[in-house]
Each structure stands twice: as C-alpha cells, then as structure tokens.
Amino acid sequence: MRAADLLLYAARVVRGGVVRTALVLLAMGIGVAAVVLVSALGEGARRYVADQFGALGTNLVIVLPGRSETAGAGPSIASGETTRDITLDDALALSRSLAVRRLAPLIVGLGAVRAADGADARVREGPVLGSTTDFLAIRNMSLSQGVFLPGGDPHHAQQVCVIGRTVALELFGKQPPLGRWLRIGDRRFRVIGVLGKQGTSLGIDTDEVVIVPVAAAQALFNTEGLFRVLLEAKQRDQVPQAKADAESIMQQRHEGERDVTVITQDAVLATFDRILGTLTLAIGGLAAISLAVAGILVMNVMLISVAQRRSEIGLLKALGATAAEIRHIFFSEAVLLALGGAAAGLAVGLLGQQALVAAYPTIPFAAPWWALLAAPLTAVVTAVVFTVMPARRAAQLDPVHALSRR
Questions:
Q1: Where is the ABC3 transporter permease C-terminal domain positioned along the sequence (predicted)?
Q2: Residue 243: inside a domain, yes or no?
Q3: What is the DSSP letter of 173?
Q4: Residue 107 has what pLDDT?
Q5: I need a surface site. Which of 10, 15, 51, 86 has the fewest CB within 10 A?
Q6: What is the rounded distance in angstroms from the CA atom of residue 401 to the CA atom of residue 310?
C-alpha cells in the first residue's frame, strides 16, 4: 500500500467515526491549549519583571543598607536586624570610583500633598522621592514641562519639586503647574518641572510621584539614612569594577565593617530570569500531563476500533495486506487525530493568549517558541506511543477468524 493510499484510507476512517474523532480531538486540543496558555502566562510574567528592572536604568549598581548574601532580597528582611544607615556623605563618597559615571542617593516616603494653602486646597496622598539632579538620567526618565532638580551641593535643601503627570492633573487641573506651590507636610515646594509619561515601575506609578531634593526629603521625613544609592557605571564591562569599588569605599567609611549590600541590575535580572524560566517550564510540564491523559483516551478508542473493525481488518489481510501495513493504518489514524487536535488546541491557546493581552495590556503575554513546537510534537508522539498496543493487536488478527467473527 502506497503512502498516499494509506493516508487517504486513514482520513476516510477518521471522517467516518464522528464521535470517536470528536472525543480525541477534544482531548488533544485541551492538552495543547493548556500548554500554550500556561507557558504564555509564565513567559509574560518573566518578560514583565525583566522590563520592570530594565526600565530602572542602564549599567545600574544599587547599594542597599544592611548585608545580605542573597541577590534580590532585602537585607533587612533576610537578617531581621537593624541595619546601619547609608548617609548622604557615604553616597557622595562613592563618586571616587573611576568606574562610576553618575550616582543618585534616594529617599522614599509617603506624604499628603496639597496644591495650595486654603480651605479649598486639593490634597492627595502619594509617594515622595528625595534625590539629586542625576536621578533623571540614571532612571532614563524624561520631562514634559520645565526642568528637573537643580545641581549643586546635595546638602542644600532647595524648596523645589518635580511632579508626575497625574499629580499635576489632579492638583492643578487645566492650570499650568509650573511656578505653583505645593505643601508636603509642613514644607512648601515650588513646582519647576513635570515628568513625562513613565508608567509603573516595580509597583510605583511614576506619574504619581513628587520628587524633591534629597536634603529636603531628609528634613521632611526626619531621617539621615538613605533608602538606596543608585550608581551608573560608565560602561557595561565596568559594572563589576563599580560594584567592587562601592563595597570597598563603604567598608572604609564604616570602620571596616561590611554592612551594605551591593547588587547589580544584571544579577537581579538573571536571578528573576532563572526563577521564572524554571517556573514556566514546570507549569508547562504539568499542563503536558493532560496530553498523557489524552493518549490514554486514544489507546482506548483504538482498542474499541480494533474490536469493531475485525471484519475490515480480516478482509484487508485476506487481500494481501501485511501486518506492518495494518499497523501503519492505525498509526496514520492516530497521527491525523493528533495533528487535528493539536491544530485546534493551538488556535484556542493563541486566542486565549490574545484575550489575556486584551485584559492585561501591560503584561506581554506570549507563548515561547519552544512551547508552540513542543505541545503539538508531544501530542503526536503521545498518540503514536499509545497506539502501539492496539496496532499490534490488529496486526496479529487471523484473517479467517476475523472474517468469521470468532
């Protein structure tokens, strides 16, 4: 029997058993769709986290108070101990490293922001950041109006601020915000700039922030300690040197004690990439179990088919069909059913992926290429493997007994 005749014969058999075909297609389709959707969820989470950290800046080195050997975990959370503060002078000392292009000390707090004095003043609660003029360049942020924080001595608390787009809109409405005054706590700040649209980064909507000079933030929140120090290395290959210099300088300033954690952007990204990549593979593998269940269904359907088609098989063998050709008939049917189910599953999975993208446009849901290949391939292999026993049973039928229904 030629290959074309074999496929034509298998296709006719598949079309003839409507219920049997529908059951197998449904089982295979569910398995493939599950793999595609689950892997799209995992890949979307991985890309979202990578984008969030990538938006922090370029060639970034982050200095945190407290010591932890685990990259990406808060040192104070890991140790449970009170950490020694990183002061503004500590941060400025890090500029001695020849590998550092620029740095930005950072203080983060929450404050009630008023548009103006008076009973009808608009008030909103939001994040208040304290930093320096280099914060804008390090974080790859942009301005839509005005200027950013002025340079000069970071110890000097100038009463100016830069606000996000949402803050400007909610507090001033359609009126120009530049030159207007804000009150945060008991201090007043003059608006000198409005940030361009930035979106959310690591849980903070930069459209809702108010950025003031770091010295003003220290006075506002009554603290000398910094939340972070952001360093930007001159080149990508100088990031390790910037990290080593930061650790050395901080150790010298803290009487030889290694009480800060220095992490690099690449290290954090690599850690999250490994974790989320492994998680995607794991949940994709769990979803693939449904394909094994579908394979069992294929085996049962094929066994029933062998019992129902004894006369047909006997006639084929009486006409000269060999045992190998009988096996090939059943394998061809299994492959056709698996391919049909895989195609339906891929279509449903990709439609589900589009629905996720529409529901959560900020998360880049997309099934990885290996899932789009592995799911149909697994479906075909599973169908073939679970057809081995029914095919062998059909091939072993005696034509005389099969035709006489004994």
A1: 286-399
A2: no
A3: T
A4: 93
A5: 15
A6: 9
Q: How many domains does the chain have?
A: 2
Cβ–Cβ < 8 Å for 45, 281: no
Query: Which one-letter amino acid corresponds to residue 81?
Result: E
379-393 average pLDDT score: 86
pTM score over 0.85 = no
- Which structure tokens are listed for 59? 């060639």
Q: What is the percentage of the chain residues whose pLDDT exceeds 70?
A: 91
Same structural domain, 316 and 398: yes
- Domain membership of residue 80 (yes or no) is no
For residues 108 and 48, membership in a common domain is answered with: no
The Cα 381–Cα 384 span in angstroms is 5
- pLDDT on residue 203: 63
Structure tokens at 162: 């830069």
Q: Which amino acid is at 39?
A: S
Domain assignment present for residue 260? The answer is no
Tokens of 202: 């690591």
Does residue 239 sit within a domain? no
Domain boundary among 178, 211, 233: 233
Mark whether 218 and 277 lie in a shared domain: no
Asked whether residue 43 falls in the same domain as residue 119, the answer is no
- Distances in whole angstroms, Cα of residue 393 to Cα of each of 10, 205, 245: 18, 65, 73
**Pair (397, 320) in one structural domain:** yes
282 φψ region: left (φ > 0), alpha (ψ -120 to 50), beta (else): alpha
Tens-digit pLDDT profile for residues 167-185: 888 888 888 889 888 888 8
* Structure confidence at residue 286 as a pLDDT band (50, 70, 90): confident
Q: Are residues 196 and 112 in the same domain?
A: yes
Number of helices (H) and strands (E), helices first, in the chain? 14, 12
In 8-154, DSSP assigns E strands to 60-65, 100-114, 123-131, 143-146
> Which amino acid is located at 383 in the chain?
A
Q: What is the pLDDT of residues 61-118, one digit of tens each?
A: 999 988 765 444 444 444 455 568 899 999 999 999 999 999 999 999 988 888 865 5
Pairwise CA distance, residues 303 & 91, whole Å = 74
> What is the extent of the structural domain holding 214?
101-233
Let me know if 240 is exposed, middle or buried by CB neighbors in 10 A (0-12, 13-18, 19+): middle
Question: Of the candidates 186, 217, 233, which is a domain's last residue?
Answer: 233
Query: In the prediction, which pLDDT does 116 show?
Result: 65
Mode of pairing for the β-strands spanning 60-65 and 228-233: antiparallel
Same domain assignment for residues 364 and 312: yes
Same domain, 323 and 386: yes
